[in-house]
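During data preparation, a discrete fold description was generated, as reproduced here:
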Amino acid sequence: MKGSMNILRCACLVAVQDDKLLLVRVRENVHWYLPGGKIELGERPEHALQRELLEELGIATDPGTVRYLYTVFGPAYGEPGEVELICFAAEWKGLPQSQGEISDVSWISMQDTAKLAPAVQILCADRLQNANGDSPAYSGRAEQARIVMARFELNPYERP
């Protein structure tokens, strides 16, 4: 993450069920990405997550269950620069349904990497590597990114 490069900071939900991730797609985009969105200036990442999930999927997270997992850096999908995905787990009320700019919501296999945005590919490769001990199979620019695991004694929202 060098000086003048654009970095888009987003708060994202990582929800896994039966080796599938809850993912969303915007309009006619080919690739799927994690639910959530851009963190506004002065906004805490967990608040951005709650706001975006309500706007995009109509789900209200239980604030007491929102927990920081890790941060993923990777190529931004459809934009120049990189993306910083601050990832959380959370419980929610309601069924996720596409709203606003979201055209589709679905549970997608973590192994179906051709459908995933580059930073989501990185997340899945790391999860799959940790789950089965294989080396990750990154594709394209995704191999240039990294995952930063949480260090709870530090501020988890600051870049290392």
About this structure: The chain has one domain: 7-149. The domain at 7-149 is CATH 3.90.79.10 (Nucleoside Triphosphate Pyrophosphohydrolase).
